[in-house]
Specification:
Rossmann fold; 6-stranded parallel beta sheet
Length: 431
């Protein structure tokens, strides 16, 4: 990472330094995923098993874990890890359980009552990545709000062999069925349904470029499934002043850089000395990381920017709209009202992003790649559907009927007008 001085950059250079790494979800990836979706849609389990053998190297007889397999997997989880999962579950459940839907009942006009109501999505699908970093915490983050919302059926897919801790976390959080399925084929199975995998209404969870592309394509298909949010590589932006601890700043940068080679970290400060010390600390700590090569690739496409003051740091952060935003500055609370484009904000020197990833209680499923400008962190409401209800008393229809008929006539929708007129006529005849 090289230090850039924001004021010395042209507008194009400023845009370039905040540009995320290019996505590799090319037309080639889209074509391959489209073909996979179509085959699974039409051939069901036959195609699904073929892709599972090809990409997951899965040779098992059945795709769904049996109760005996689930019990055996949970028994393998060490006691200390179970305790950590239990504590994280408790905090996540507490925070998400407080996210109750707003229910409105209002008389908008004499005799006209309008309401909002919510209903849990009946069946949802959760995708938990495995591979080099089995995301045990993601099983909790996706399943707990589904459990709280009251979804009738919660299914989970993860690449085989599924880490036993993922299975334990899923059971803890109320998942009903677990499948040995990874990659785009898992998304296809949940979106369209097969002989073994039930079709879901909405799919949640992160994944690689193939999973991301599959989610995008099934959400565009009326026969597919909705998805939680647009997803991309993980990212963090840190705002630090001269009094920040360079070791803390370095640790926060590296904790995101190790996610993947296409992750990005951004460091903003009004202190050149802090930038230099933090980058030096990161370079030293990098040598000790097991995932050093991954972090090095991420850091190579990341940025450290010297700003004129902390207010400019906030302005740049809003422009970038990071997934994670960390404030390591004096009196960080004073800056919160200036920051509105971020998936989740971590306030103060002793609030590392890792807290939100695992156990503080907030959800770590967040909008990335700039979508924090328009999308929100995953919450319990994402597993519910909101709808409206209205009641009109005869006197209400009489009072507002003329307004409705006038507007319908203005739009040349005579049947709309007539739907009111025939009722008003009936009411007049009753008098």
């Amino acid at each position: 990472m090289q230090i850039k001085v924001w004021q010395d950059l042209t507008a194009d250079e400023q845009q370039a330094v905040l540009t995320r790494p290019a996505q590799t979800s090319s037309a080639k990836v889209a074509g391959a995923v489209s073909a996979m979706l179509e085959r699974i849609k039409t051939e069901g389990d036959t195609a699904l098993r073929e892709y599972s053998r090809q990409f997951d190297h899965y040779q098992g007889e059945h795709l769904e874990l049996t109760p005996a397999e689930i019990k055996a997997a949970c028994a393998q989880v060490p006691a200390d890890l179970k305790a950590a999962v239990d504590q994280a579950y408790s905090n996540i459940k507490l925070f998400h359980g407080a996210q109750q839907p707003l229910q409105v009942t209002l008389e908008t006009f004499p005799g006209i009552i309008c309401q909002t109501r919510t209903h849990a999505l009946e069946r949802v699908g959760l995708y938990v990545p495995g591979g080099s970093a089995p995301l045990v915490s993601t099983a909790l983050m996706l399943a707990v709000p589904a459990q709280i919302a009251g979804c009738s059926e919660i299914i989970l897919c993860s690449p085989p062999p599924i880490n036993p801790a993922i299975i334990y976390a899923a059971c803890k959080a109320g998942v009903h069925r677990i499948f040995n399925l990874g990659g785009a084929q898992a998304i296809a199975a949940m979106a369209y349904g097969t002989e073994s995998v039930p079709k879901v209404l909405k799919i949640f969870g992160p994944g690689n470029q193939y999973v991301t592309m599959a989610k995008r394509l099934v959400s565009d298909d009326p026969h597919g499934a909705a998805i939680d949010m647009p997803a991309g590589p993980s990212e963090v932006l840190v705002i630090a002043d001269k009094n920040a601890d360079p070791r803390f700043v370095a640790a926060d940068l590296l904790s995101q850089a190790e996610h993947g080679p296409d992750s990005q970290v951004v460091l903003l400060s009004d202190s050149k000395e802090l930038l230099e010390k933090a980058l030096a600390a990161a370079a030293a700590e990098l040598q000790t990381l097991p995932r050093r090569e991954i972090a090095e690739k991420s850091l190579a496409q990341s940025a450290a920017i010297l700003c004129s003051d902390i207010k400019q740091c906030a302005d740049i952060s809003n422009l970038y709209a990071p997934e994670h935003l960390i404030l390591q500055i004096d009196k960080p609370e004073t800056l919160l009202n200036c920051l509105y484009n971020a998936g989740s904000i971590f306030v103060g020197a002793y609030t590392p992003e890792s807290l939100g990833d695992y156990a503080s209680g907030t959800n770590h499923t967040l909008p990335t790649y700039g979508y924090a400008k328009t999308c929100s962190a995953l919450g319990t409401d994402d597993y519910r559907r909101r709808y409206t209800v209205q009641y009109a008393q005869p006197e209400g229809l009489k009072a507002i009927g003329e307004t409705v008929m006038t507007l319908a006539a203005a739009e040349s929708l005579d049947a709309h007008r007539q739907a009111v007129a025939v009722r008003l006529q009936a009411l007049n005849e009753q008098q």
